[in-house]
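Support case: user asked for a sample of complex input and structure output to validate their parser. Sending the pair below.
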Amino acid sequence: MKTIQNIGLTLFLAGLTVFISLIFIGKYEVTPQILDELVSNKGIKSELFINDMKAHVVGKEFSNPFSFSSEITSALETANETYKQNSEWGKVIWDKPHSLSYEIAKKSGTGIVKENKSLFWWLTFGLGILGALMYIIPNVVILGRPGIKNNGIWFDASMNRGWIGWFAFVFLVSFYLLLYFRPDFIVNWTYVVDPISENLSGNLASQWFLYGFLYCTVMTVMAVRMYIKYRHNKYQILRTTSVLFFQIVFAFLIPEILVRFEKPWYDFKNAFPLDYDFFFSWNLNELMASGGLGLFILVWGVVLTLVIVPVMVYFFGKRWYCSWVCGCGGLAETLGDPYRQLSDKSLIAWKFERWIVHGVLVFAIVMTGFTLYTYFSGTEAVLGIKTQTIQDIYGFLIGAIFAGVIGTGFYPIFGNRVWCRFGCPLAAYLGIVQRFKSRFRITTNGGQCISCGNCSTYCEQGIDVRAYAQKGENIVRSSCVGCGICSAVCPRGVLKLENGPEDGRINPTEILLGNDVDLMDLLKQK
Amino acid sequence: MEHIVIIGNGISGVTVARHIRKASDKQITIVSAESDYFFSRTALMYVYMGHMKFEHTKPYEDWFWKKNRIDLKTGYVEHIDTDTSSLLFADGTNLSYDKLIIATGSKTNKFGWPGQDLKGVQGLYSKQDLENLEVYAPNNQACKRAVIVGGGLIGIELAEMLHSRHIPVTFLVRESSFWNGVLPKEESEMINKEILNNGIDLRLSSSLKEVISDESGQVKSIIIEGTGEEIPCNLVGLTAGVSPNIDVAKNSNIETGRGIKVNRFLETNIPNIYAIGDCAEQHEAIGNRRPIEAVWYTGRMMGEVLAQTICGNRMAYKPGHWFNSAKFIDIEYQTYGWVWAQPKENEARFYWEHESGKRCIHINYDKNTREFLGINNFGIRMRHEFFDKVLTEKKSVEYVLEHLADANFDPEFYKLHEKEIVAKFNIENNTNIQLKKKSWKRIFQTN
């Protein structure tokens, strides 16, 4: 079994190595036709840019994406600068430099990867999936009989912030930085998934398609790990199946198929304000131009946030969304599960959490207020602040840096719910409902707690579960996503997630059950 | 300001300190020689197994004590001078008190086996025991085999711990079946199977004769009583129970028996000195309980009660209905009320076991009055409040079976077995009990 695991690990690392090395290979050559097409498709009027491209890029062969990208982005920036100085606004190209560079690279790439897309899919994704499964599946035997087997987690360099954890951190952070800010460096990765994209939407793969496909793949493979690790626990099995289903069907397949039918790309489960650009004017305009379906999406989006989400939280707690449906939660609960014990349980971390997560919620609401005001009034700025600016700041700081780079990149250091705990405005909103108006709680079983701390250690949201359980109090916390692991790891059967009457949901106790009945009555009366 | 000094920072000592602080402004000092801060003793096993770090076993962050004005003092109390109301520490310093609470816990039983004090022979109770385990059994290279002596809760925990590091374990159990002085035959046999299924070499009806030393004074092997079989090993775990750790009270005027003798108010023979937790021994046992109760929960309960007395609301220790829990490798165990290893004369039993052989319930009731007396549940979680109420109100066994759905505390979506259980009871007892649907209303009336 160990041998199979080692072979699996080798295959996985080989796939990862090929995947990383793809960044550094490939050839790019812009033909005059490509440039002409680009100019006419995008209506580019920047002569400086076109001339610069003709002089320095067209007809030349670039052997890596970095020099290619730097030529194009500098051509763009120099041209724009001049036009802006001369106030020739019509000639400025408003595309983000690296996005434009990506578009050109995607068309002008040649070489081994582009010519052997399927082969390279197998060498990257194929090896990665196969290797990971060969590493994971023998755990059926290695972990021992079904039950909680957290043996050695804190001795393992991949899970205790050891050197493997730091390596994973660097890899994940770099991945997100490339994805969000240097898509033109990862054109080769998108070639690898082109065939799949063409089958689904009919289009070539963008970096976002690549991300979506990778996301689903990683979740599926790591869900297998969850199924094995928690095979004795039906709650975990169902929950994992549910997040996997919603990710693959709702976040990946349906939107791609919508695009195939020339409808707007839309993830029906992605609720505002997590879906922070839902009310952006380009989205509203696109939806309104898309006929009946567009209007339906518009209404659905509003109803989802204002009615469905809070009503469901009332009945089931925010877990129905955060750990049964949400894509971010889905990744956290599969890829992130090995890191759950790394979340900070201190009181100070809780304070930070409340300020930051509610701050993001306020930011999202203010930004959306600006957006809607601008949309209906037609003015570009509110109180002297340009709506576009505040949207860009939000998109950069929250949408990219917080949700992506920090939110997922920091899994191996701060635990698997960094985004959900500290950053997600939807989680903050659901949390407020859960705390003040919900039937959900984690019931503490009388006086059975032995303060061992397994629950707190394995709470991904950094809740000090034990602090409540050892006092015989139920756990009612806005941040709880109801993953159910505290209940699973409890050795004494103390914790149960349940939806019950609101009466007695929060039950401060002085004296624990099992002691003198008179004493309990006495202290209750006080 | 009255100065309350507590010797021992385990669950009893810390609970009494916290509750005194809640109810008063007294000066509180907790003394410990074991650790700087309170940690959960029951969690030591998880540190060795790599589930947690030692940090995680501390239920309160380090700032908690200062914030709540509970002074922590590290030191070993050599002598209690009851005349001058002061403590003498091993380092020669003194500390005077107005009221003294002794909460020194237990120590591992050693029954005079030859070689019982060799290196690599130890119990599993204290932080130091955990540290020693890392010295003598860090992995299966340094420790080729471990022998555990004594089949109780600590013994099986130690077996599970060593097993988690792939160290072969021989488990000597004096009784003919695991913990059968406490568990009925069926449950005991279920745990025997669980031990064997995990590849642990379980030796029933086997006792230790002696521990053999190597040249360096470290354990080399053990010899089994009777058969004389020699088992080479690098670690011997002594887990044949614990007894009160009362060294501190020796050579003082405090009355001791096996433990420190206390009355119902947890008062010793010396005014202003109290004892709680594992180290306390009741003059007369309470109900069916033992005079010495070395259980996490009872230590905590004594701490809760004594705080009232210390704060001027003199109150007897009157524990409610017995309950306890444990985990035997993968099988969780809870018990509410009394289910003896052997039924008493007036008692009848109902036993149900799941086909997997890893789940069961065992109900004890009075065959004349039908009163429900207690339940053991293995592999199924049950609500404490439900059974507490049932026992207080002296409900019948039929009532319990009828409301079994209210009692269940398993995670959502787990397969429930109540129908099967009730059906079995009906067949065996010729009854016609109908299982009621789970009712939130009933469950929350128990509050």
